[in-house]
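Homework help board

Subject: predicted structure for assignment chain

Our instructor gave us this sequence and asked us to write out the predicted structure in token form, then describe one feature. I got the tokens but I'm not sure how to describe them. Can anyone check?
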Amino acid sequence: YESMSRMYYRNAKAAIVCYSVNDKDSWDKVQFWVSELRKEEPGCQIYIVATKLDVIHGNNKNRSVDYHNTLDYAEEVNAKILETSSKTGENISKLFQEIAQDYVNNKANHLESFEDYIHVGS
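My token output:
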């Protein structure tokens, strides 16, 4: 599955890698996927997204993954980090707005002209 999945992120400009705040195993998998993305798509902006923020009910003792460790790791791999809840909708819109804004602001994503992208007769 992992080798087949490469076709889904080939030439990606952004990637969302999720883990659950109450599942340590999911955090371990984040590190694998970030490594894969960095190896295969070094220019891809990675967003590490904590999910299920609602289950900790504002109490960090309910976390299985330490928030400060996630911040340190995100900084180490030059990723952005955000905590979300699909149940409550917390930070979901913010995540996608940030991805869109980052894409627009990244000059590497802008073509000088249509001809830079299409090579007719090449």
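Reply (TA_rk): Your tokens look well-formed. For the description, you could write something like this. The radius of gyration is 17 Å. That's the kind of observation they're looking for.
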